[in-house]
Amino acid sequence: MNLTNWEVAQSLIRDWEVDGSIERDTTTVEGATDLFIQDCESRFLSDASMGRYKLRFKELKEHYGTWHLKALTTAELDKYRGTWKLSPISAWKKLERMRTFFRFCVDRDLLRKNPALSLKPPKATFLADPSLQR
Asked: N or C: which end of the chain has fewer CB within 10 A?
């Protein structure tokens, strides 16, 4: 399960036992990201969008590839986000893509709730006209 906190691991096991998912689902982060990419390809997303998702998933797999998908809690994602060295707008977009991925997992019944929804986006200023920037 790749968890270092005993209480969190026990809570996760209790949740799995309650909803019966401990027996039926063993999806890893790597498997779920592969399913998402297949879905994107079947929807004919642009090469630019596919490239962005593949780049994000490569990084996610490096951190959590063999982890069980349900082991990725909001707290774990918050620690992962702490490793990002990005501008606020780039971090915002990365978080947006992560939320989209986890929403896909919820829609496909791989997760019960989206752990990335509770993560607050960074403060960023979006200006349409570059001449308005100071």
From this structure: C
